[in-house]
Amino acid sequence: MTQNRDHRAAAYVAFYEALSPSSLDDLALVMHDDIRFKDPFSDVTGVDAYKRILESMLQAAPDIKFNVHHCAYDGDVCFMRWTSAATLKRLGKDPWVIEGMTELTFASDGRVLSHIDYWDASTQFYNRIPVIGGLIRLIRRRVSAH
């Protein structure tokens, strides 16, 4: 790992761990204008499109917190292991905890050019929604190898 890579990931981690409506004004400091963001729900390009996703997420889960546990590098790619926790206004009072991985690539200026999240939306999200969760559990039992 080079010092430059450490700094790029550190700035991005700090941004996410302090994410709030007021921090969205700092997006351009850590994200390239042409950032690609992909997760189980979205696949967008451009900082404005990504900002709209973050704004929507912060409206639905204003108390969301991210905790990055580990960063690892392979060439110019950074992999982050993280946990997010939030209360979703429309889906009850119990906290929702999501564990996932992110693959980051950086532009030549050090800002994030690509942010791709990997996490299991089936077991960590849909499974907790009434009716849908029951269907997912039924399907999982039917296709299970045991």
Tell me the layout of helices and strands.
Layout: H1 3-17, H2 27-30, E1 31-38, E2 43-45, H3 47-60, E3 65-74, E4 77-86, E5 96-106, E6 112-118, H4 121-124, H5 132-143
Parallel strand pairs: 1-6
Antiparallel strand pairs: 1-2, 3-4, 4-5, 5-6
The figure for the number of domains is: 1
Amino-to-carboxy terminus distance: 43 Å
Q: Indicate the CATH class.
A: Alpha Beta
Number of helices: 5
Secondary-structure element order, N to C: HHEEHEEEEHH
Structural class: alpha+beta
Low-confidence stretches: 1-5
- Gross morphology is globular
What portion of the residues fall into strands of 2 or more residues?
A: 25-35%
The rounded Rg comes to 17 Å
Describe the structure.
The protein is built from 5 helices and 6 strands, in the order ααββαββββαα. By secondary structure, the chain is of the alpha+beta class. The protein starts with a helix and ends with a helix. It has one domain (3-119): Nuclear Transport Factor 2, Chain: A. It has helices at 3-17, 27-30, 47-60, 121-124, 132-143; strands spanning 31-38, 43-45, 65-74, 77-86, 96-106, 112-118. Strands 2-1-6-5-4-3 form a 6-stranded mixed beta sheet. Mean pLDDT is 85; it is low at 1-5. The chain is globular.
Main traits of this protein?
about 150 residues, 6 strands, 5 helices, 6-stranded mixed β-sheet, alpha+beta, globular, single chain, Nuclear Transport Factor 2, Chain: A
